[in-house]
Amino acid sequence: QVQLVETGGGSVQAGGSLTLSCAASGRQVSRSAMAWFRQAPGKEREFVAGVNRNGRVTDLAETVKGRFTISRDNDKNMVYLQMNSLKPEDTAVYYCAADINAILLTVPKQQSSYDYWGQGTQVTVSS
Hints:
The chain has about 130 residues and is mainly beta. It is about 0% helix and about 50% strand. The protein is built from no helices and eleven strands. Strands 2, 4, 5, 6, 9, 10 and 11 form a seven-stranded mixed beta sheet that branches. The mean pLDDT is about 95.
């Protein structure tokens, strides 16, 4: 079992920054690929960023490249999403997810690959 708890959401003006944190617990965390997804009102949940098991491979959605950074600290079982230059269209509930079956160098983008999900944290960006 893996448990994920997201923190760090909030309200910010356009151009601002936020850092989301995901605290993970469970024996399989260090072997899991981790990702952030988001879901805006009336839209489907979408992939934002992912990091492989050892933190050396990352992948970002085109819409956030150059603005967001994902990282992980396996010693602390933490995953972070640094979000800069935020835009109103980044407003969404952000979810942390874990893929416990991920191959070492892979960062899945499909929701169906992920086995565990956090409860989500709201990010609101005002113009």
